[in-house]
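Re-run requested by the PI after the first attempt was lost when the workstation crashed. Everything re-entered from the original request form. Ligand of interest: 1,3-dihydroxyacetonephosphate.
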Amino acid sequence: MKKLAAGNWKMNGSMAALAEAQALVAAHPAPSCEMLLCPPATLIAALSAQAKGTPLMVGGQDCHPKASGAHTGDISAVMLKDAGATHVILGHSERRTDHGETDALVKAKAEAAIAAGLIAIVCIGETEAERDAGRTLAVIGTQLDGSVPAGATAANLVIAYEPVWAIGTGRTPTLAEIAEVHAFLRARLQGLIGPDAAGTRLLYGGSVKPSNATDIFAVPHVDGALVGGASLKAADFGAIVAALSA
Ligand code: 13P
């Protein structure tokens, strides 16, 4: 399995930010891990064109479950693919919170993504209150069961474990806590998709930065990272790519 360094630019970046992606590729022309940036939808076509012929892949941050239709403001998986995307992040906690996305909706979106030929990066994670109540595994188990799409394989599904309280806060779980969750996810996924679970990338996300990446990547069943803030700067994301390639 190739590990995956994925950057989520969230609602950040204008055309000028493409220079950061250019610098990233210049510094890491042949990484031994996979390298993905998910910019805002406005930049997907331009970044895809720029990244053509390089190892950098481009993804979306959301898609609609339908392929087309009267859904003002939405973007379909087919359109992301057409714009050059290979992946799409689905069910990020910010979308679950800001837009009330449920597991069932995330699953429908992931099925649309797979049908369009995209790799679905399905995000799950507990809130701080849920962790404090000792409910972490119960919460993420339920999210996983409800969000994993039909027809998922190691080739079309990636799972990202992102504790809500670790996103953008500079706080991370302990390495033992990450290990506990990732081992749990591997086993639970086996029950959902069978033997392909062994080769499905399980990413950790939440305040990953150059200074903690090496330690996090050494945790069993961590197959890469989904990086927010630190993916906006080529030097920081490049250091994370290097840590994953080591
Ligand atoms: P940060 O890396 O900024 O904590 O964000 C993580 C995240 O939400 C990636 O999807």
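Saved to the shared folder this time. The CA atoms of residues 175 and 218 lie 9 Å apart.
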